Amino acid sequence: MNEPIAYLQGSWLPLSQASVSVLDGGFVQGVTIAEQLRTFGGQLFRLERHLERLSRSLSIVGVDPGLTLEKIAELAYETIARNRQLVEPADDLGLTMFVTPGVYATFSALARQPGPAVGIHAQPLPFFQWHEKYATGESLVVTDVMQVPGACWPTELKCRSRMHYFLADKRAREIEPGARALMLDETGHVTEASTANVVIYRASEGLVSPPRESILPGVSVAVLEELAAKLAIPFVHRRLLPVDFETADEVLLCSTSPCVWSVTRVNGKAISASKPGPIAARLQAAWSDLVGLDIVAQARQFATRAFPQKS
């Protein structure tokens, strides 16, 4: 069978059959806690850190998955093992873990789902979505869609309630085709991009990230800070305005699968002469050394991979 195998509610089944009920609170209210990971050389990267964040998010929303973190880790490793045959030895997988609160109270009489839904699935990484951006960079645009204020839910909560990302990216593409949104908070300061942390670089200051309390505690941006220390590049946190991005020497994005890559346009203004800069290249090389493979070359190699089809 070439289809990915998923874990859901105690069972292993084809990914196409791993469905959460329309009566589930994850569907009805969007109450889904999720973590996205990837492998490097077949090994899950920073699983412990992702599990810590998962646990914290579950605590915030008050959902007990009914499984220990150790058991979830065991299931994550097994999911990778069950799906490793989907890719070549030099290729890698993405892994998703999610937890919902189970059947929404209004529909409890219609279903008998015992407690929260826990799911884990893996799939080949979609390198085709980002491999060219290592060479060309990304465009960011500030839109009129604001980041969710911390008074609505804590910025550290990693959840799938992301309508604001969807609307912001939609608006960004209307302003500049192919762009993605640069999110601002209610005071007009930059928080992050949709589904990615943002960092600027200035030769006079080093790498600068928005304050920790203003952003999702990204695993990738934490790795970036570690790499910066190894490269003797200063790394600081402070409040940033859109103009700081428009005038930076370099602007970087970081997230789980692409790791780190350049932004070459912000609000229509060229960054680093409209091409990826040397700091981005140094950080990509350092990341490659950390994980034992060339992240840019791997993405190029498997960008045209034919995705497994259901047998």
Rg from C-alpha positions? 20 Å
Residue runs with pLDDT of under 50 for 5 or more positions = none
Gap between N and C termini, in Å?
A: 6 Å
CATH class of the largest domain: Alpha Beta
Query: What's the architecture of the largest domain in CATH terms?
Result: Alpha-Beta Barrel
Number of strands: 15
CATH topology of the largest domain: D-amino Acid Aminotransferase, Chain A, domain 2
Instruction: Look at the structure and name the CATH superfamily of the largest domain.
Output: D-amino Acid Aminotransferase, subunit A, domain 2
Write down the overall geometry.
globular
How would you describe the overall organization of this protein?
This protein is an alpha+beta fold. The chain folds into 2 domains: 121 residues, 2-Layer Sandwich (D-amino Acid Aminotransferase, Chain A, domain 1); 166 residues, Alpha-Beta Barrel (D-amino Acid Aminotransferase, Chain A, domain 2), CATH 3.20.10.10. It has 9 helices and 15 strands. The strands form 2 sheets. Strands 7, 8, 9, 10, 11, 12, 13, 14 and 15 form a 9-stranded mixed sheet that branches. The protein has a 6-stranded antiparallel sheet with strand order 2-1-6-5-3-4. β3 and β4 form a beta hairpin. The longest helix is centred in the N-terminal third of the chain and has 15 residues. The chain is globular, with a radius of gyration of 20 Å. The model has no long low-confidence stretch (mean pLDDT 95).
